[in-house]
Amino acid sequence: MASSSPPAAFVCARCGACCRWHGLVRLTDAEVDAIAAHLGLSPRDFIERYTEVTPDRRGLTLRESPDGACVMLDAQGLCRIHAVKPRQCREFPWRWHVPGYEALCQAGRTP
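RESULT FIELD:
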């Protein structure tokens, strides 16, 4: 979902705001393998603990916490898989963002 264009000088502030919106984080097979290795898990264990089938049943998505946040956010609100985060996450806000993200995202407020 896209609204206005992101700022040209957007630099992620790791505030975690984009990780607290409800929605799917679709995973490729390669991303499953990389994330599982990063967490020290087998791909099967990672899938069982942290993913679910997408509503269209065409792939896997990261689970959400009960409050809608990504299950990969730690207690401090930092991404536990930042070094190997999925492409969808890396492409925020250039390839996708929600209307009004600038008011919630610390980097979106940076001139």
